[in-house]
Each structure stands twice: as C-alpha cells, then as structure tokens.
Write a structure and sequence with these properties.
37% of the residues lie in helices and 30% in strands. The protein has 247 residues and is α/β, with parallel strands linked by helices. The protein has an eight-stranded parallel β-barrel, surrounded by eight helices.
Amino acid sequence: MIVFPAIDLKGGAVVRLAEGDMDRATVYGDDPARQARAFAAAGATHLHVVDLDGAFAGQAVNGAAVEAIVAAFAGKVQLGGGIRDRAAIDRWLALGVDRVVVGTAALDDPALVRQAAGDLPGRIVVAVDARAGFVATRGWADQSEVRVVDLAERFADAGVAALLFTDVGRDGLLRGCNVAATQALAEATAIPVIASGGVAGLADIEALVAARATMAGGGIEGVITGRALYDGRLDLAEALRVAAGTA
C-alpha cells in the first residue's frame, strides 16, 4: 500500500486546513521543495500535492511551487487543485507530474475525464470528496446532490487510475481515517481507492492495511496523510514500513 505524504499549498506556503476551510489554515513551512526533499529522505516514493488556491480559482495559482516540488522530488508526484480542462491536464503531465487529480470537473464535465483517462492510461485520478455521503466540489465549498458511490459508478469503465476518497468532515482534524467508508467504496467499485482525511497516527495505517488484506485484488491502493506527519504524531518511515508489510 502506498503512503502519500501531502503537501498542500496556499500562497506559496505549505499548510494544512481543517475540514477544507481556507480560513482555518496552519502554516508548516515556506519552502515546498525543501519539504518534498525531507519526505524523500524519510523514504517516500510518492507525494500528493494540492494547489488549494487553485481549487477555489479553478486554475493553477501555486504553479511555481508545484514545479519546484517536481524538480526536487525524485519519486512520483500526484497533483490536484483547479485542474478542470484538458490543457491543464496536459500541461502538468508535460512538466513531470505523474498523475493529476480531477474533482469538480469529474462532476461538471465527466466527458472530459473519460476522454483524458482513455487517452492517458494510469494518469487520471478522480477525487471523490464526501461530506455526509454526498460529493463536495470547488475546494469543498459546494456540496452536490450526487452520492459518492454514484460518482464512482460513472467512471467504472473509463480507465481512471484511482479514486481519491476524502472524508471532508475529518480532514485535518486528526479524528482518524474513515476506514469503513473507504473499504465500502473500494468494495463497490473495481477502481483502486486512495484513502484521505483524518489520519491521526500509525493505527490508521494499520487499519487500512488490514482492510486491504481482506479484499480481493487489494482495493485500497494507498493513503494520504498530512497533519499527523507535520505534528509529529506519525513517523513517515514507520508508516512506510507498515504499509509495505515489513514492520
């Protein structure tokens, strides 16, 4: 199972939000590239990067910081935030991003996602951001009437690389990952699922690994963790060992 350390960008700085609220941001550093190198030094092979300002603006805002991260990190970078057209998808992939995450566009323009996923196998991840079981969009500022499972079903045969499932109500609050909901989604679709939101410590990694072990084909591809790493509640090297089954 992949552990994706998160680097969320706001105004060029590394931050974490509480429940996706831009007014509840904690700043953890002003050098995103240095943070990427620190995660690499701890053993990370994947990063999850979000342009938070871009998610609200609908276009890249922290582009320079993202490019610096990609240049500094030898592993694979997964990027989300404001990616809502094919030009943006192609631009980021050309600049070295491994996979792009589309959220709002998946709801507003599913044809775009299906076309991109077909043209770019393994490069498109669909964000399934959930609040009370329904999909949230535009940086989680808006809530739709579309159920999480229904959104996943729309892309069941599209060839997307993964579904990124975030429990918005837990994100950045260290309340524990919603393992049951993650597993339920993974069992409802053949698309690999990445867990996100609320990871508080090693117990969450262990629970996801245990859930994954009960599922045919794995189901749960990985987990994103942010605040627990920055606050020192989770040791990245240890999390990587547990996720790899070597702890």
